[in-house]
Amino acid sequence: MSDSSNGYELSVTTWIDAPVDQVWQAMTERQPEWFCPKPWRAEPGNQERRAGGSAESTFYGPDGEVMPQSGIYLAYEPNKRFVFTDALTPDLTPAGPFMVGYFEIEPEGKGTRYTARARHWTEEAYKQHKEMGFEGGWQICADQLKELCETAKVA
User: Fold this and answer.
1) Considering the entire predicted model, what is its pTM?
2) Which residues pair with 4 in a beta bridge?
């Protein structure tokens, strides 16, 4: 699943039987319900939803693991996509980059095509993310988002 210009991209995609605005609302307002493979959970922290704004979350594992993540949004386009990186902290300090994460949606037929991609600076980071279970984990997240949008009314 490599498709970026340097070849270090991983991606997953799924079709969701819900309109774009409903999927976007779930993506941005209900992240704890889908953004991390269960039984893990993700809690958004400081979220300045704009290009250059803070993109902070903390991931909690079933055995007491706590993994804070800090980065910035590179793009934030409502009903289309948000893109973030861990290469910079919210105060724009370089932070040993691992990836750029893309979460994109677009209308497709009577529903929405959701695509999540991770682009990496190096082959090492790409392989590390792949070995961490990117495809399985990010596909679970896509499936959780799909289920949330298709079975639960998004408030």
Assistant:
1) 0.89
2) none
HEC sequence for 55-119: EEEEEECCCCCEEEECCEEEEEECCCEEEEECCECCCCCECCCCCEEEEEEEEECCEEEEEEEEE
Return the residue matching tokens 């409903």: 22
**Residue 93 β-bridge partners:** none
SS3 6: coil
Q: Tell me how far apart the alpha carbons of residues 55 and 120 are, in angstroms, rounded to a whole number.
A: 18
pLDDT tens readout for residues 34-88 = 999 999 999 999 999 999 999 999 999 999 999 998 999 999 999 999 999 989 8
Q: Is the pLDDT at 154 greater than 60, yes or no?
A: no
Q: Which amino acid is present at 39?
A: P
Q: Residue 134 belongs to what H/E stretch?
A: helix 134-151
Which tokens sit at 84?
A: 């973030």
Residue with tokens 């590390």: 128
9-151 carries CATH number 3.40.47.10: no
Residues recorded for the chain = 155
Output the pLDDT for position 95: 84
